[in-house]
Amino acid sequence: MNSREPEPSLNACLPKPPLGERELLTAMQAGELVALFKTLANDTRLRMLHALVRAGEMCVSEMSDLLAMKPQAISNQLTRLADRGIVGSRRNGNNIYYRIVDPCVIEILDHGLCLSEEAKARSK
Amino acid sequence: MNSREPEPSLNACLPKPPLGERELLTAMQAGELVALFKTLANDTRLRMLHALVRAGEMCVSEMSDLLAMKPQAISNQLTRLADRGIVGSRRNGNNIYYRIVDPCVIEILDHGLCLSEEAKARSK
DNA sequence: ATATTAATACATTGAATAGTGTATTTCAAG
DNA sequence: CTTGAAATACACTATTCAATGTATTAATAT
Asked: What is the pLDDT of residues A1-42, one digit of tens each?
């Protein structure tokens, strides 16, 4: 529950080349992007990530308790997130503490949360 | 292939309440957000959306040709996108032209593309 | 009316994936 | 060394979902 973040890094994104003039997405580019969105397209992972944003770092059991899910499920998803380079870990005795290492994710999560609220308001 | 967009609307997003202090995501909030990301977590839909950003509007057959996919597949995904309120359509004779009606999607697509490039550079 | 093209509806199939249960690894305490 | 807790590895199941094939609807032209 400690709140020690490494600074949210307000704009981790480059100056922006205009999207409308980019070449049509290649299969590979689309693939990369899909991988990112897929990682975020899961409600367990989203809640885990948000918990990490709030707490700074957490171990599996803490998260398991907080989200009321089995440790295996949490561990599975953490592994996925780690494979994507989104979270990192540090061991302390029996516990392994995870933290977000990719600041972009925080950004896009924030952005997406905002958008989803608006989108919901508009589309229904 | 005409390029007539209704202005990308540079910031469709509100002033930003700080993410780290928000309450833990409820299952419903997470669900909304997941729905958004799921919609974007598909390479066909991403390429379709980008094509739409570039062209302004396209009909199924045009898109089918451009992306080298069967019309049914394109139509399927357009239906999904329409159900989510992301695209809208307009009929002109035999052809039905689709366009993006949710400016947020352009934003997050742009953002995501940028991030995925950086993330790729970092994580591998 | 008939033929033709565009798009969609619907059922089916195959692939990806999240959660579970079981077993195993890793560390700390006694 | 043994015990117990935390985390992971692995196999398995159920579900979700994209693409396909077939059939149908909608509009235009002859």
From this structure: 444 434 444 445 554 567 777 777 777 778 889 999 999 999
Domains and CATH numbers, chain B: 44-123 (1.10.10.10)
Mark yes or no for CB contact B51/A110 under 8 Å: no
CA distance A23 to B112: 16
Which residue(s) pair with A88 in the sheet?
A99
DSSP A10: S
DSSP state of B8: -
How far, in Å, CA of A66 to CA of A79, rounded? 18
- List, for residues B21-77, the tens digit of each pLDDT value: 787 777 777 888 999 999 999 999 999 999 999 999 999 999 999 999 999 999 999
Which stretch of DSSP H or E encloses residue B54? helix B43-55
The single-letter DSSP state of residue A121 is: H
Count of Cβ atoms closer than 10 Å to residue A26 Cβ: 10
In chain A, which ranges are continuous DSSP H helix? Answer: 27-40, 43-55, 60-67, 71-83, 103-123
Spatial distance between the Cα atoms of A5 and A9, rounded to a whole number of angstroms: 10
Is the CB of B50 less than 7 A from some atom of nucleic acid strand D? Answer: no
Q: CA B92 → CA B59, B64, B98, distances in Å?
A: 9, 17, 11
B72 Cβ contacts chain D strand, under 7 Å: yes
Close Cβ partners of A76 (under 8 Å, ≥ 6 residues apart): none
- Whole-angstrom distance, CA of residue A36 vs CA of residue A55: 23
